[in-house]
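re: the backbone from monday

yeah here it is again, tokenized this time
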């Protein structure tokens, strides 16, 4: 499990503590740290990448799609850059990767920007699309920034790329309580209070009230047919949701712990899972046929296509989240093709449940599906986890 040093600070006072000291404390508490590394929220930290302005843009004489540009990167000497993006134009504020920039294609693979020639024209850098710098998924053209973007500003500063330390913590089967940032924060509080005589407590995030309508005629109905496999199932319907990109801080949090931002609805469910250890699932209510969620098993041999596009044959012991016509999710393990939200989603049904851990573990093994959700459910998510703000008792002993 990945724990962010910077994220952990949100819940516990570790000011003045070095990453190595936290490593030692976690190991002392029984949470073995397998590795610790310094990372950036974007791989490579956008080193040598700057905000720039296209001064001139002309068609390449020997190409039907390339352009010859001169680009101001704030040094006083414009760069000559050959660009193949269809949307490049003079006057634009853009993102420029200078010579020496490493463009990562995976966590370990990259290519380095070097001075070269394209169709006989010198090129001294690259104007970048969002996906090339891990700043988004768009590859239709180069990133065009607002007119007030300051030329020469390092992209690391402009996009608020942060440094952090990532701890990979080995969580044993009996320590489900520590499988989140707040869970780890509890151990930090306990050890420091006992060992250092402090009086720390968890800094819980604020949870303001929001408008609730309990008598909504379109509320999703829930039926649990097998209470042994699903002792608790809760959900809430959220209307008039606007799906889009998550705020930058949320995207950075997820990237730090190795999760890819998708959209604000999916991202916030992943954030909560990493924060408190409880997996959530967001359904598009328009895909819940009959407006009815039914938690049950399906007949042996039922075919079900999961989110990865693979058709799987269900076992009669696999617990499913269904609508009135078909299965939508393999409960606690993996969603189906129609189980998620899209950019067109308007209304969301948000699920939070407790599933039988033995059942989840066996289903996960049968289908060789290991997900962040199944990893937590099969270790017994605590359905009664406390969010008490009381300070820990001074009589509490650390064992």
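seq for it, each position gets an aa:
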């Amino acid at each position: 499990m990945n724990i962010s040093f910077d994220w952990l600070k949100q819940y516990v006072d570790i000011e003045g503590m070095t990453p190595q000291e936290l490593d030692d404390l976690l190991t002392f508490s029984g949470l073995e740290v397998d590795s610790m590394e310094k990372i950036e929220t974007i791989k490579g930290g956008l080193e040598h990448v700057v905000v720039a302005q296209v001064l001139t843009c002309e068609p390449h004489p020997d190409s039907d799609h390339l352009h010859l540009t001169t680009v101001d990167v704030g040094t006083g000497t414009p760069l000559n850059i050959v660009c193949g993006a269809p949307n490049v134009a003079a006057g634009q504020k853009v993102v420029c990767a200078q010579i020496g920039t490493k463009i990562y294609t995976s966590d370990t693979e990259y290519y380095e920007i070097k001075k070269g020639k394209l169709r006989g024209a010198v090129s001294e850098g690259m104007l970048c699309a969002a996906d090339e710098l891990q700043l988004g998924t768009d590859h239709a053209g180069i990133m065009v920034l607002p007119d007030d973007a300051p030329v020469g500003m390092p992209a690391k500063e402009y996009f608020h790329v942060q440094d952090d330390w990532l701890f990979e913590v080995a969580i044993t089967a009996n320590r489900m309580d520590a499988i989140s940032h707040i869970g780890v924060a509890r151990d930090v509080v306990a050890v420091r209070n006992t060992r250092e005589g402090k009086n720390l407590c968890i800094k819980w995030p604020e949870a303001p009230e929001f408008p609730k309508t309990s008598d909504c005629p379109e509320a999703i109905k829930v039926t649990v047919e097998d209470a042994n496999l699903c002792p608790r199932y809760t959900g809430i319907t959220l209307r008039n949701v606007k799906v889009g990109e998550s705020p930058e801080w949320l995207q950075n949090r997820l990237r730090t712990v190795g999760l890819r931002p998708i959209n604000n609805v999916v991202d916030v469910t992943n954030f909560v899972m990493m924060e408190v250890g409880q997996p959530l699932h967001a359904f598009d209510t328009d895909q819940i046929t009959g407006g009815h969620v039914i938690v049950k098993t399906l007949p042996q041999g039922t075919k079900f296509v999961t989110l990865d596009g693979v058709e799987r044959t269900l076992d009669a012991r696999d617990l499913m989240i269904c609508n009135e016509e078909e299965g939508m999710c393999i409960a606690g393990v993996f969603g189906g093709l129609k189980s998620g939200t899209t950019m067109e989603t308007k209304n969301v049904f948000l699920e939070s449940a407790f599933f039988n851990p033995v059942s989840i573990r066996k289903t996960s093994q049968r289908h060789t599906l290991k997900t962040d959700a199944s990893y937590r459910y099969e270790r017994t998510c605590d359905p009664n986890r406390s969010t008490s703000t009381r300070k820990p008792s001074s009589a509490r002993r650390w064992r």
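The first strand starts at residue 2 and ends at 4. The helical segments are 5-8, 19-29, 155-158, 181-196, 248-256, 264-276, 357-366, 372-377.
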